[in-house]
Write a structure and sequence with these properties.
single chain, mainly alpha
Length: 70
């Protein structure tokens, strides 16, 4: 889908550097995907910490996951 948005030039340059994308659209798309992934992870962890889920892994089990620090 094509849309037109205004993004500060310095912000866009930062996004391109952080995503290692040379083109603007792929850089913005990757940044948005990562933002959504992180937001969902935080929401999930908040629910776990508040005991609002039946998630049963211990801290040790979570830390043992190979891509936990991803």
């Amino acid at each position: 889908m094509r849309i037109t948005i205004e993004i500060d030039e310095k912000t866009l340059e930062s996004v391109q550097l952080l995503t290692k994308q040379t083109k603007k659209s792929p850089a913005v798309a990757e940044a948005l995907d990562e933002y959504i992934r992180l937001k969902k992870a935080r929401e999930f962890l908040t629910k776990v910490m508040e005991g609002k889920t039946d998630y049963t892994m211990s801290n040790e089990e979570i830390e043992a996951l190979s891509n936990f620090d991803r």
